Amino acid sequence: MRMEQRMKLAPRMIQSMEILQLPAAALEERLEQELSSNPTLELREAGPDEEELQIERDQEQRDTREGERELVVEDRAEGKETGSDPGAAGTKNADDFERLSNIAEEYGEAWESNTYETSDNWPMRYRGGDGERDAKMDAMANTASRPQSLGEQLLDQWHLVECSPRLRAAGELIIEHIDEDGYLRTSLDKLAQTGSENFTLAELEAALKLVQQSLEPVGMGARDIQECLLLQIDAKIAELQNSPQKQIAGTDFTVERLLISDYLKDIEANRLPKIARSTGLTVEQINQAKLNLRLFHPHPGRMLATDTPHRITPDAVIDYDEEHDRYTARLSSDRLPSVQINTQYVRMLREGGLDRKTKEFLGNNLRSARWLLEAVEQRHSTLLRVINVVIEAQRDFFDQGPQYLKPLPMTTVADQLGIHVATVSRAVSEKYVQTPRGVFPLRMFFSGGTATESGEEMSWAAVQAKLKEIIDAEDKANPLSDDELVVKLKAAGIDIARRTVAKYRKQLNIAPARQRRQFQTQ
Questions:
Q1: Which residue, among 337, 339, 320, has the nearest Cα to 328 in the 3D structure?
Q2: Stated pTM of the model
């Protein structure tokens, strides 16, 4: 036996921390899961204003439907009974039958093989004979198709190429080893050993050549960037030879091909004078060739990429109130389902008369529902309090821009709000805010920094912004080295080391001074 103190987290506290850490999209999914699994939760009904708005929308739809002409198919005899002349009835029938013909073409063979039913809302909706196909059809129609991978797209192209079965199989093996950039980074010798067909090196070389000549975009199957660009340049030269009208004035891409085939390393290092001395070209010609090289893609596989871009959903919106000259924050919880506890189950539990198993089931679900709603409310409150502190601390950023972003440690915010620093960290995790200056991750506002010579605090993000401003304003014919950038920053009151400047320059994807230099034309 021993006496000890231990801190244990209750399930309610764990759930609260999980909800706090969820971004808006994940919280929306979590609430939908709880709605489907917890019977005591239900969607909140629309308020009076929302009900009136819905009534107005329904009335507008009814007025629109009443304004549309009904589909009437009648013969000429019926037209006489209505008092219209046969010619007018025939014209009306022709229009009606034309509408029927358009509908039949739209729905295809399903019009004849299946039944349809109409509702108040047009268009018609399908009603299968077994009563279940309607839901299946709706699910299929609303489900996005799986996009083809790069390999599948290349194989579809390859299957259209006319070649021998042996060569086709070798090409399929090569396509299987093409990476997402479009490169074949596995050697042919290794492919000859791994293939189950025991291809010879000559067969693989022939298949690779055909793959490079046949697949789009041009450059697929290249083994390095030099071969990739040369394939594209040769294809462009062949295109211009076949279509002279497409030629760019004074450009036949021979200089571009020379630079890539013989001087690629010098181009990467921006050693233009050396290339000029070796080739007899002028610096102006080389610069123009470098501009023309931008027509070609160094990673052709990415042109067929099917990755869905990451969608950012801001958790909060910061607006500027011109009347009171202040910034206000509000949560963008419009997408979140509005849930509440079903009062019918609460009454059932209070009135009693339930068996033990049912009472236990309702009690557990009601308790879980209360915890969830309290956790969501606590998340909204904490997130809004944290953002309000950010607005107060970073007012200069919202007014003047990134260079005025100040250091804001999470411990300072935690002390000001009277909460733990871990709570602040969870509150800002994967959250985004929409501001008058754009959408930013909330964590961006929490960073360390340095003090300027005037004693003003400046965040590292603001230092990077100042560094970029200095580089953008430099003389491109004589760019600043990292040591000279240190001097420029110190003149602006920012004293940091050279290695810090080099690190920030790389983070900003800015090349060193040698590669940034622009040579004067000769």
A1: 320
A2: 0.57
Q: How far is residue 287 from each of residues 279, 292, 340, 514, 517, measured CA to CA in Å?
A: 14, 9, 66, 15, 12
What residue numbers bound the domain in which 471 lies?
Answer: 450-517
Whether residue 64 lies inside any domain: the answer is no
> Which of the given ranges, 66-80, 156-170, 345-359, 479-493, has the highest pLDDT on average?
156-170
Do 375 and 433 have their domain in common? yes
For CA atoms 467, 470, 475, 481, give the dihedral sign.
Answer: negative
DSSP secondary structure, 175-193, as one string: HHTB-TTSBB-S-HHHHHH
Mean pLDDT within 77-106: 46
Q: Of 417, 425, 505, nearest to 466 (Cα)?
A: 505
Residues 136, 508: Cα–Cα separation, whole Å: 50
User: Do 341 and 265 fall into the same domain?
Assistant: no
The whole-number pLDDT of residue 456 equals 67
Residues 248 and 212 in one domain: yes
- 400 and 457 assigned to the same domain: no
Are 404 and 479 within one domain?
no
Average pLDDT over residues 154-161: 92
Half-sphere exposure of 345 (CA within 13 A, CB side): 20
Q: Does residue 336 lie in a domain region?
A: yes
462 and 412 part of one domain = no
Is 448 within 8 Å of 491 (Cβ atoms)? no
| Final residue before a domain boundary, out of 254, 279, 304 | 304
- Nearest-CA neighbor of 271 among 71, 13, 515? 515
| pLDDT surpasses 90 at 304 | no
User: What pLDDT score does 125 carry?
Assistant: 37
Rg of the chain taking only CA atoms, in angstroms: 34
Residue 164 has pLDDT above 60, yes or no: yes
Question: Who contacts 73 (Cβ-Cβ below 8 Å, separation ≥6)?
Answer: 93, 96, 97, 100
Q: How far apart are CA 491 and CA 453, in angstroms?
A: 10
Which amino acid does the sequence have at 425? S
**Domain endpoint, select from 304, 332, 363:** 304
Tens of pLDDT along 308-341?
Answer: 566 788 899 999 999 889 999 998 876 677 888 8
How far apart CA 387 and CA 246 sit, in angstroms, is: 56
